[in-house]
Design brief:
By secondary structure, this protein is of the alpha/beta class. It contains seven helices and 14 strands. The radius of gyration is 17 Å and the shape is globular. The N and C termini lie far apart (39 Å).
């Protein structure tokens, strides 16, 4: 499997490119603010052919360049319908100050890609890869985990792109529009902690981690916190 990642934008959100191998079809996960140039560079360098853009959720730091990338390569953007409106209106629901900050960061604004599709229930087959789509709302109403089986890495049975649901040592905030703490707790209990133990977590910000490590050390995945 080919996997590349890089952080971009004001909040250093992780963008990922995944393919079965170099010189193959690929998916682009969370091309956020200022990600398009590096996506183009990696696609050219590794002889990749983009097949789709996948969004773990609709916050602009993860989808600001989704339309640029998808329309350039003529591919669809997949996103949960609950977050679709954020593709064109990243300031939706924010107070005046928050909306002004977002508009200052994105300059001329955002627009929907030419081809926007809802994630199917269950599995999305794309670029020769079977990607399980796991709804995990709480950070936003449309947050998802994208789960891919692998046998190429010792001690790892599954790679999960966790967006802003869970990070190394932390979890996503719930105080932004669309966030809900009780829903997040349910997603952490029923979706994140239900993942196989030998799962590598590739989050929307910060370093890669593992479910085993987070189960032991992440304070937000401990029983006392999850009972709140």
């Amino acid at each position: 499997m080919f996997l590349a990642s890089f952080p971009s934008g004001a909040w250093q959100a992780n963008c990922y490119l995944m393919a079965l191998a170099e010189k193959a079809e690929c998916v682009i996960i969370d091309p956020g603010q200022d990600a398009a140039e590096m996506v183009d560079r990696l696609v050219a360098e590794h002889g990749l052919t983009p097949s789709a853009v996948l969004a773990t959720h609709g916050h602009f730091d993860h989808v600001a360049d989704a339309a640029t990338v998808a329309d350039r390569y003529g591919v669809p953007v997949y996103i949960d319908p609950a977050d679709r409106h954020l593709l064109a209106d990243p300031a939706a629901g924010l107070d005046i100050g928050g909306a002004a900050m977002i508009r200052q960061l994105i300059g001329s604004g955002m627009a929907e890609p030419d081809d926007v599709r809802a994630y199917p229930d269950g599995t999305l087959p794309v670029a020769g890869i079977e990607i399980s789509v796991l709804p995990a709302p709480g950070h936003t109403a449309g947050s998802v985990l994208l789960s891919v089986p692998t046998r190429e890495h010792p001690g790892v049975d599954r790679i999960v792109f966790s967006g802003d649901v869970v990070f190394a040592g932390s979890v996503g905030r719930t105080d932004l529009p669309g966030g809900d703490q009780s829903t997040m707790l349910r997603s952490l209990r029923e979706v994140v902690l239900a993942l196989p133990e030998r799962t590598a977590l590739l989050p929307g910000h910060g370093p890669q981690t593992s479910l085993a490590n987070e189960r032991l050390h992440n304070p937000y995945l401990q029983p006392d916190f999850l009972r709140n």
